[in-house]
Amino acid sequence: MPAPENSPRSVDCPPSPLGCAASAGEPCLSHGGTRERHNFHRARTAAWEAARIAAVPAAQLVADAAARKGVRHAKHAAEMLAANGFTAEAERIRRAVSDRNGLMSAKQAVALLVDEDGDHG
Ligand SMILES: [Zn+2]
């Protein structure tokens, strides 16, 4: 598995018209490729987020459930994780839901699973 990266720069930018087709590690370009952008094409950011989710099986499971089965609440995401054997991840989500007084979406659960991956603190 590749080292964690904190920027869309770690993935390829999709080809035109969504992006500029910059290779991983290269900056996004604008103005017909003559100028470096200071940010990233939205499609590249989306591709990077998808890659981060794909690297964390529990996050991928919740993201799929949110997209396909309409799982909206983190509490339901935790139940689903537990049912699929992701006990530690389910417990992490339950704690987060509790910390937020129940106000946590499945989408936020995905972000939490992705962000805390590799963080053993
Ligand atoms: Zn780009």
Describe this structure in words.
By secondary structure, the protein is mainly alpha-helical. The protein has 2 domains: 8-49, no CATH class; 56-115, no CATH class. Helix content is 48%, strand content 3%. The protein has 5 helices and 2 strands; from the N terminus they run ββααααα. The chain has helices at 42-54, 57-68, 74-83, 87-99, 106-115; strands at 29-30, 35-36. Strand 1 (29-30) and strand 2 form a beta hairpin. Helix 2 runs antiparallel to helix 5 (106-115). The structure holds zinc ion. Residues 13, 19-20, 22, 28, 41, 44 line the site of zinc ion. This is ANTAR domain-containing protein.
Key features?
48% helix; ANTAR domain-containing protein; binds zinc ion; mainly alpha; 2 domains; 121 residues
Q: What's the SSE blueprint?
A:
Elements lengths: L28 E2 L4 E2 L5 H13 L2 H12 L5 H10 L3 H13 L6 H10 L6
Helix pairs in contact: 2-5, 3-4, 3-5
SS class: mainly alpha
Give the distance, in angstroms, between the N- and C-terminal Cα atoms: 21 Å
| Rg | 17 Å
Main sheet properties = 2 strands, antiparallel
Helix amount: 40-55%
Shape: elongated
Briefly say what this structure is.
With 121 residues, this protein is mostly helical. Helix content is 48%, strand content 3%. The chain has helices at residues 42-54, 57-68, 74-83, 87-99, 106-115, and strands at 29-30, 35-36.
